[in-house]
């Protein structure tokens, strides 16, 4: 046989990879396809702000304007001091905006990437990772906006705020797992996109973002502890609003939820990895 003949790669459908080997493979492919990942992120950002005068600066200006409007409106509604209540709202609204934006955009990820997936081999986890990375950049910009607003309102800045990047990383892991699960589910059940929009919109009002916890009757406040999203909002609020060093439980609870979400997301993607393309 001619040695120059290309070798065919044969996939055995009976061979089921375990989660550990799949994660190792994903880490290796992230290194090999790092330039593709970089191009996906930069192209998404450039497309979003194409023909815009301010361009990428909108990632800083847009959250700044939205946060100011919301702070003014809700401080008047709840008759709270704009300084303290503004900081209270900003500390939770920014992470929630990141979470909700990722979840709302996640269902059609693989459907939109059909042209890539059916022509060339691209690691499937790159597409959810690209979405969360793009929104993560916007999240980082909104955090910069928050610090600007804090200075404008005369809020006290503390070294505790240096914990913000770690809190952002934990939230990133949590959201990435959810995005992978929703994007896979929507390939098989197209109603997931519509359900996600409704659920995410309703979830905002179940979290103490726009209203203080003191407005909730004491006997019902324990319900928030059963909401996984609450622990991420609370982590940022402890760091940014109370400027206190988070306790071990403040860190470990969201970290445990984030790891569970990330592993479950990769597990769902692993189970449907070979079948996903044929369902598009």
The helix/strand order is HHHHHHHHHHHH
The rough form would be described as: globular
Q: Which percent bin holds the helix content?
A: 55-70%
Number of helices: 12
**What percentage of amino acids are in beta strands?**
under 5%
Please mark out the parts with pLDDT under 50 across 5 or more consecutive residues, or reply none.
Answer: 1-13
Structural category is: mainly alpha
pLDDT averaged over residues: 84
Provide the gyration radius in Å: 21 Å
Largest sheet: none
Tally the structural domains: 1
Distance between the termini: 38 Å
Write down how many β-strands occur, each being a DSSP E stretch of 2 or more residues.
0
Compose a concise summary of this entry.
With 280 residues, this protein is mainly alpha-helical. It is 67% helix and 0% strand.
Describe this structure in words.
This protein is an all-alpha fold and 280 residues long. It has one domain. Helices cover 67% and strands 0% of the residues. The chain contains twelve helices and no strands. Helix 3 (58-77) packs across helix 4, helix 3 (58-77) crosses helix 7 and helix 4 (82-105) packs parallel to helix 8. The model is unreliable at 1-13 (pLDDT under 50).
């Amino acid at each position: 046989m001619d040695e120059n003949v290309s070798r065919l790669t044969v996939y055995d459908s009976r061979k089921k990879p375990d989660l550990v080997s799949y994660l190792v493979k994903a880490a290796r492919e992230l290194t090999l396809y790092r330039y593709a990942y970089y191009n996906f992120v930069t192209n998404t950002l450039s497309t979003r702000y194409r023909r815009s005068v301010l361009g990428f600066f909108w990632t800083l200006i847009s959250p700044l304007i939205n946060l100011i409007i919301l702070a003014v409106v809700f401080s008047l509604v709840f008759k709270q001091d704009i300084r303290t209540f503004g900081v209270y709202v900003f500390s939770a609204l920014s992470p929630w905006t990141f979470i909700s934006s990722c979840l709302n955009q996640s269902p059609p990820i693989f459907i939109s990437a059909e042209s890539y997936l059916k022509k060339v081999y691209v690691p499937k986890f790159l597409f959810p990772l690209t979405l969360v990375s793009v929104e993560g950049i916007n999240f980082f910009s909104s955090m910069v906006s928050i610090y600007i607003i804090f200075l404008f309102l005369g809020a006290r800045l503390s070294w505790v705020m240096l914990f913000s990047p770690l809190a952002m990383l934990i939230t990133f892991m949590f959201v990435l797992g959810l995005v992978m699960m929703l994007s896979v589910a929507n390939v098989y059940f197209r109603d997931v996109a519509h359900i996600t929009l409704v659920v995410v919109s309703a979830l905002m009002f179940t979290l103490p973002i726009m209203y203080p916890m003191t407005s909730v009757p004491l006997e019902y406040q324990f319900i928030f502890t059963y909401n996984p999203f609450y622990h991420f909002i609370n982590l940022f609020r402890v760091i940014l609003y109370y400027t206190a060093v988070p306790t071990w439980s403040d860190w470990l609870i969201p970290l445990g939820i984030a790891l569970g979400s990330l592993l479950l997301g990769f597990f769902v993607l692993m189970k449907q990895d070979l079948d996903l393309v044929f369902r598009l």
